[in-house]
Amino acid sequence: MMDTIDSISSQPTAATSTSTSTSTSTGVNPTPSPQSRIIDDKSPLCIPFILSKIAEYNALHANEANPRPFIIGLNGVQGVGKTTLVKALAETLQEREGLNTLVVSIDDFYLTHENQLRLAEENSANALVQYRGEPGTHDIPLLLSFLSSIISSQPTHLPLYDKSAHHGLGDRLPPSTFPPINDPHLSAPQHRNIRVLLLEGWLTGFRSLPPSTISSKYLDLQSYKTLSHHKLEHLLFINERLKEYEPAWDQFDAFIHIDAQNLEWVYEWRLEQEEQLRREKGTGMSGEMVRKFVDGYFPAYELYEEGVRQGVFRGDEEKRGRQLRMVVGRDRGVVEHMVL
Question: pTM value?
Answer without folding.
Answer: 0.86
